[in-house]
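Researcher: Structure for this, please.
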Amino acid sequence: MILERINELLSEVGQLSAKNAEEIEQLRLKYLSKKGEITALMADFRLVAADQKKAVGMKINELKQLAQDKLEELKASVGTEKQSRELLDLTRTPYPIRLGTRHPLTIVRNQIIDILQRMGFTLAEGPEIDDDLHVFTKLNFAPDHPARDMQDTFFIETNPDEVTKNVILRSHTSNDQSRIMERQQPPIRVICPGRVYRNEAISARAHCFFHQLEGLYIDKNVSFTDLKQVLLTFARELFGPDTKIRLRPSYFPFTEPSAEMDISCHICGGKGCGFCKHTGWVEILGCGMVDPNVLEACGIDSSVYSGYAFGLGIERITNLKYHVADLRLFSENDVRFLRQFESAY
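Model: Predicted structure, token format:
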């Protein structure tokens, strides 16, 4: 009789199930407590015949172990379900989570770097906080040049009573070029991207910080013709094979002669539209031959070497490619704006 009861309980325990911790506790009390089914069997064990005690004892131990294992299994199962329910976010959208996208300035910056690296330029970066010597003096800026004025340049205040005019937030990435020239002898062929700062009122067309990329090539017998061919190739790679360029005389302290480069408007094909102010041309960068004074100030013999430099605003190029009307959108991190560039790279 006792073996039959044990077999019934083995079958019963093997099929146990529970939905929560309370039900598991009820099962424990039913089978393993002092008044439970298995404890009762052990109390009846004294009535078993001597020749059957070994077999019955082994069966009771098997039943007890099965009950303990089953309850542990149910506890683990219920605990996992409870944890899953606690981690469930009922406010989460049923649609898949959208992937992020690169910032439009990063997209265009990477495109520009890729084009120029394929043309033989190497990447170099410098400090955003620099001294007057590398940002202005070595680049042939006169002591009374307007760019040194507080209206244009951010000076670092180290003492509440005075502004230290030797430490500034760079207003252009040309400081990278002066540092490279003073520590490296030609040939030099580098591009220097980075963030720059100017003390300007923030509006749809201007900001107190923006991004530039400058190129520098110094070697023997470098000419303006070399510069023009590099810029023409660059413009056609970036804006399309039918792009035309023109160079207009200009002035920069660190180049002589200097020029500003326009490209044919890629919207109207040079015919004239509102974007190019009906001229057919859009300015994209400044350039020129490195002034001999700059070479000498950086320790390079200007009687042996010559070079060219060019600089462009990444925001401006991004505007030309994607027609972004307000510069402030680039720094506001509005995901509605950023999602427009998911397929741009």
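Researcher: Any notable elements?
Model: The chain has two domains: 2-87, 104-341. The chain has a mean pLDDT of 84.
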